[in-house]
Design brief:
mainly alpha; de novo design (two linked rop proteins)
């Protein structure tokens, strides 16, 4: 009878240790996931600010840019589309954000052809605000990609992959710079 009791105690200890290890691994994965989500929400906040500046910029330059109405309309349309995306649709938001960044670059290149815009104080302030936000976005994207890489790597490691599979924790997408952004901006419309 004593042997049976020892076996039961050992099994209970193993079960408790196993549950403890599972909880520790799960909590570690949740912390990584929450950190990556927070990094995304930081980007989302900056993108919202950029969209507010975008609306002001479009309003300010629309009276000057008579031939480039298409870009202004497209920027406004993309801004609205971004605002209507579900907050958890990170990949779609990343893709649309990259398109908006390309449209901004194009708009700034076109604005160089308008001397009255280059000297307009409101436009200069708005351009500076956009450039500052873009710099902050670059930093936030870097932090996001670090957080996501850490999460995605951990999800693939043993024994975390087992816990992630049981808990339904999925990899998150990296924020990748599209090839177009690595090239010089052309002042021809490319939508």
């Amino acid at each position: 009878m004593e042997t049976w009791l020892i076996i039961v105690v050992i099994l209970v200890v193993i079960l408790i240790l196993g549950i403890g290890i599972f909880i520790a691994l799960y909590n570690s994965l949740i912390a990584l996931k929450k950190n990556a989500e927070k990094a995304w929400y930081d980007i989302d906040v900056l993108l919202q600010k950029r969209h507010d500046v975008l609306a002001k910029l479009v309003e300010t330059v629309s009276s000057y840019l008579t031939y480039e109405r298409t870009i202004l309309e497209r920027l406004t349309q993309m801004r609205t589309q971004y605002m209507n995306l579900p907050s958890n649709d990170i990949q779609s938001k990343i893709n649309l954000s990259n398109q908006i960044t390309g449209a901004f670059r194009y708009l700034f290149a076109v604005m160089e052809n308008y001397p009255e815009l280059k000297s307009n104080q409101n436009v200069i302030q708005l351009q500076q605000a956009v450039m500052e936000l873009e710099s902050q976005l670059a930093d936030a994207r870097e932090f996001y990609n670090e957080a996501v890489t850490l999460l995605n790597t951990r999800i693939q490691q043993i024994p975390y992959n087992i816990v992630a599979s049981i808990a339904g924790i999925k990899p998150m997408p990296l924020y990748k710079v599209p090839e177009e952004e690595r090239q010089d901006v052309s002042t021809r419309l490319q939508f």
